[in-house]
Design goal:
The chain is mainly beta. About 10% of the residues lie in helices and about 30% in strands. The chain has one domain: Pectate Lyase C-like.
Length: about 260
């Protein structure tokens, strides 16, 4: 079946909450076109804002997307959403399962409260990636996230588990109170990184953070090599090339159980 395609026709600069697209469970095009959605203080039919074609409601494409389309993939389950263009605040917020592919940049607070699934951002992600959702105490509970370029500040707060791969830099005050999970950062790391962390594994090219960790033996690299092979496979890129990383285990001050591989 052909994917269900929504081509953006909106000319104004009003914010449109796209949460509704996660709940589409029909391939009936007339029904989808006649669905009412709110933008600003008015109600619109979907057909007034988007050109709608295709049939597979579990495989959705959004064309000509921009930063005024917010909350794409909110509470997503099972579906695949491919976005051509940028995405507004709240991309993949509280996502449960499925796949979100963004061929552009993500605004603030992407993947906040993510519980599962996979997100691929082929661009930059703004500040507060994986930030705490309203009323919750963990920024990401599980899932896989790949950001091809840079990530802003105040990102990845209280990560419970999962895997995050960042192809570029990450801003200040990131990975605060890391609980567990694995994070790869291939660019520069900002100030106040991984403060008050409890556990977790960091793979980084920026060796400047190593001064805060205890140098350890690199005799057993079974987990490292398993992770390297799988991350390269999941991203379809040879992101982690080093087969001889320098391993660190534990922070010097608090003796927290954080493992660091400088790659």
């Amino acid at each position: 079946m052909k994917p269900l395609v929504f081509k953006n026709k909106i000319k104004n600069r009003l914010i449109l909450d796209m949460s509704w697209i996660s709940n589409i469970n029909t391939s009936d095009i007339p029904e989808i076109k006649n669905k009412n959605i709110q933008m600003g203080n008015r109600s619109f039919k979907v057909s007034e804002l988007f050109q709608v074609t295709g049939e597979d409601c579990n495989n959705i494409k959004i064309l000509k997307s921009n930063s005024y389309l917010v909350n794409i993939g909110n509470d997503l389950k099972y579906k695949t959403i491919c976005i051509e263009g940028d995405a507004g605040i709240g991309l993949a917020k509280n996502m449960n399962s499925g796949t979100v592919i963004l061929k552009g940049n993500a605004s603030e607070a992407a993947c906040s409260g993510m519980k599962g699934g996979s997100v691929y951002i082929y661009g930059n992600a703004g500040n507060r990636l994986c930030c705490l959702p309203t009323g919750k105490n963990e920024g990401i509970l599980d899932g896989f996230i790949y950001i091809q370029k840079n990530v802003g500040s105040d990102s990845i707060t209280r990560m419970r588990r999962g895997n995050i791969v960042i192809g570029g830099n990450i801003g200040n005050n990131s990975c605060y109170e890391l609980i567990s999970g694995s994070i790869t950062i291939l660019g520069k790391i900002g100030k106040s990184f991984c403060v008050n962390a409890k556990r977790g594994t960091i793979f980084a090219k920026d060796s400047s953070i190593a001064k805060n960790y205890i140098k350890a033996s690199s005799t057993d690299l079974t987990f490292y090599n398993f992770y390297r092979i799988n991350i390269n496979k999941m991203t379809n890129r040879k992101l982690i090339k080093s087969i001889c990383p320098q391993r660190y285990f534990g922070t010097k001050k608090e003796r927290k159980l954080v493992e660091l591989f400088v790659i």
